[in-house]
């Protein structure tokens, strides 16, 4: 059976989401043989797939060989640069679009505004001008998604008060996502005064969202108010709410190997846990200090460390080390943002094992090499 352009586009999408690079390459070969690679939709999905599989070179090559481009092609190129946290390169693509007199759409502006969050230097003034020019110059009315991006940029560079003022002066009722963007910056910059105000807005807007309860519980826990935190979690349990569990996975021998925290369902569970215990000891010798502040439960210090040691990212990294040859990089995918302790741990793993570790989480790519991360510890 010959897969048509619709099927190919779908398979590229799945391969990219899973980070299944080998499968994506095989289907790319199939598209070339069947002549569907010149289809615009197939080309656009190919760009996205290669970027998501940490293959920037082939993603850019796929863009360059396309016989024609549309705005989705250009947006895909910008989005890929943002996955790699390369804001300056994304702005270069934006300049190419402007020089070619290409008309941007609403997605383009969400991406370009976001690019100013990951530039090498503070370009907030340029970002403000762009945001204000959306309606006057390009005829595009800013939506909640644009405000999320703009607030994230202001918050990233420390303009928390201005970000709060921007939200309060929005021409329509701000969604919870806009407030969450500011709350994330408050967490990063340790601004509890604004953070408390923001959390109240989110709570009043999303009383049925499980993540809202987790958010409030975490805020109480972080400030040592364990009793209040447990009351929120108990309320959450009584209402039957469950938070979205953290999950990490690795592709090995064309199979997906998935892990949850303290997961013991894998057939090689004993080898993985034994290997992780050795890895923890080596990292502790190399200077790794478990950050128990990421365990938001009122338990003793040793129990907190046990919670930390068996997070899904650590299990996936250990499995990757056990199943790949020395010198090969480890590639991990994660469905949510990696926690700070796992991030620190993987930096130490890259030192003690002399291996490169690539991790894609909800914030983009992390590349751990010789104790450093490409995100510069800001994600």
UniProtKB/TrEMBL annotation:
| Extent of the PPR repeats | 70-104, 209-243
User: Which InterPro entries does the entry link to?
Assistant: DYW_dom (IPR032867), E_motif (IPR046848), PPR_At4g14850-like_plant (IPR046960), PPR_rpt (IPR002885), TPR-like_helical_dom_sf (IPR011990)
PROSITE patterns referenced in this protein's UniProt entry, alphabetically: PPR
Which keywords annotate this record? Repeat
Residue ranges of every copy of the DYW domain listed in the record: 287-379
Extract the GO molecular function terms from the UniProt entry: RNA binding; zinc ion binding
Listed Pfam families: DYW_deaminase, E_motif, PPR
GO-annotated biological processes: RNA modification
Q: Which family, according to UniProt?
A: Belongs to the PPR family. PCMP-H subfamily.
Q: What is this protein called?
A: DYW domain-containing protein
Origin species: Dipteronia sinensis
């Amino acid at each position: 059976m010959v897969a048509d352009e619709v099927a190919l586009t779908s398979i590229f999408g799945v391969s990219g989401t899973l980070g299944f690079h080998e499968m994506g390459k095989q289907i790319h070969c199939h598209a070339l043989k069947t002549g569907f690679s010149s289809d615009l939709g197939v080309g656009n999905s190919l760009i996205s797939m290669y970027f998501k599989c940490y293959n920037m070179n082939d993603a850019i090559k796929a863009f360059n060989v396309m016989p024609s481009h549309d705005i989705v092609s250009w947006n895909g190129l910008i989005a890929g640069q943002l996955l790699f946290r390369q804001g300056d390169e994304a702005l270069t693509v934006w300049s190419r679009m402007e020089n070619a007199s290409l008309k941007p759409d609403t997605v383009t502006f969400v991406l370009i505004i976001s690019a100013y969050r990951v530039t090498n230097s503070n370009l907030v003034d340029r970002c403000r001008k762009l945001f204000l020019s959306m309606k006057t110059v390009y005829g595009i009315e800013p939506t909640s998604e644009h405000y999320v991006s703009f607030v994230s940029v202001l918050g990233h560079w420390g303009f928390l008060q201005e970000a709060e003022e921007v939200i309060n002066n929005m021409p329509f009722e701000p969604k919870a996502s806009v407030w969450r963007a500011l709350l994330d910056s408050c967490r990063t910059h340790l601004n509890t005064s604004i953070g408390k105000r923001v959390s109240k807005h989110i709570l009043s807007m999303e009383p049925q969202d499980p993540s809202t309860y987790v958010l409030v519980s975490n805020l109480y826990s972080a400030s040592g108010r364990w009793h209040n935190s447990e009351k929120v979690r108990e309320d959450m349990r009584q209402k039957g709410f469950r938070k979205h569990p953290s999950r990490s996975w690795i592709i090995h021998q064309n199979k997906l190997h998935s892990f949850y925290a303290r997961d013991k369902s894998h057939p090689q569970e004993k080898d993985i846990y034994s290997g992780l215990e050795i890895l923890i000891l080596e990292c502790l010798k190399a200077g790794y200090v478990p950050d128990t502040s990421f365990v938001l439960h009122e338990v003793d210090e040793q129990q907190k460390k046990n919670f930390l040691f068996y997070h899904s990212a650590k299990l996936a990294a250990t499995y990757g080390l056990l199943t790949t040859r020395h010198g090969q990089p480890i590639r991990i995918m994660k469905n949510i943002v990696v926690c700070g302790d796992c991030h620190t741990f993987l930096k130490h793993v890259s030192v003690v094992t002399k291996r490169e570790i690539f991790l894609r989480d909800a914030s983009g790519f992390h590349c751990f090499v010789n104790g450093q991360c490409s995100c510069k510890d800001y994600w």
